[in-house]
Amino acid sequence: MVEYVSINGAQLAYRLIGPADAPLIITLHGGRGFGDHKSDYKAYSSLSSSYRVLSFDFRGHGQSSRTEPFTFHQVVEDIEGLRRHFLGPNQPCIICGGSFGGFLAQQYAITYPSQVSHLILRGTAPSHHHEETAIRTLEQRASRAPNLSINFLKDKIFGQFESDLEFRLVMYAAAPLYSENFDPDLALKHNIETVFYAKSHNDLYSKQEKFFDYRDQLPLITAKALVIVGERDWICPPEQSKDIASRIPGAQLKVIENANHSVHLEKNAEVIGLIEKHLS
């Protein structure tokens, strides 16, 4: 059941499962302007026998309020607000972020190093330069998404949408790229059920936000880090995760075969096993 908590003036929708006294995992979903907590909750709730798992919708996403501003900094401060709300001022948490949530996870671990005991990154990148490799990957796999053009990727998904409807239609065209076992019936259902909010997407891809680059700051991360990526990840290809793991001291890297950007769902048992081992 979804609940709400007021953090930094926004009403954030969340689900929390697991023993009250267990270590807290905060999961950070992907999808600037269209992601929500549901896929992370599905993927990681099996960890709740030993951990508290908190999955939430960022402001301007899913069922959370559309309280501006929509910036990387603000969402990172919301994550810190959630940690303090559920743990108190000085107790560290475990951060698990994928895709866009992985960008935020890196920024949070850099900004609040003492508040993160373990960092789990899934299918993400250390800078905006992943967009260049994603464009090349689309050129190689264009036949998988015949209704998605290079211009749609460059100017819309990595740029600005004119409306929520345009946003919805373009992401439906892109859907076949995200999974190695694409199911068109499931994709249509998921697209219909998803909240698309062009304003939050566009703000998070504005010139002030778009050109993020954590590479020089990654050595500042003190958390024990695990970096997971599907070998077929199209939008944050494995070379991006390899770069992250090479820069965070002591980070472990795992490239999972026959998996794409949704590796946490496609290879859930393997991913959960890796996380449990990492946290033990």
Q: Assign a percent range to the helix content.
A: 40-55%
> In percent, how much strand structure appears in the residues?
15-25%
Number of helices: 12
Largest sheet: 8 strands, mixed
Number of E strands: 8
CATH superfamily of the largest domain, by name, is: Alpha/Beta hydrolase fold, catalytic domain
Family: Belongs to the peptidase S33 family.
Domain AB hydrolase-1: 23-267
Organism: Penicillium roqueforti (strain FM164)
GO molecular function: peptidase activity
Tell me about this structure.
This protein is an alpha/beta fold and 280 residues long. It has two domains: 3-129 and 213-279, Rossmann fold, CATH 3.40.50; 131-205, no CATH class. Helix content is 40%, strand content 17%. The protein has helices at 38-44, 72-87, 100-111, 130-140, 150-157, 164-174, 184-193, 198-204, 207-210, 238-247, 263-266, 268-279; strands at residues 3-7, 10-17, 24-28, 52-56, 93-98, 116-122, 224-230, 252-256. It has an eight-stranded mixed β-sheet with strand order 1-2-4-3-5-6-7-8, with helices on both faces. Helix 2 (72-87) crosses helix 3 (100-111). The mean pLDDT is 97.
Search tags:
280 residues, alpha/beta, Rossmann fold, 2 domains, 12 helices, 8 strands, 40% helix, globular, AB_hydrolase_1, hydrolase, AB_hydrolase_fold, AB_hydrolase_sf
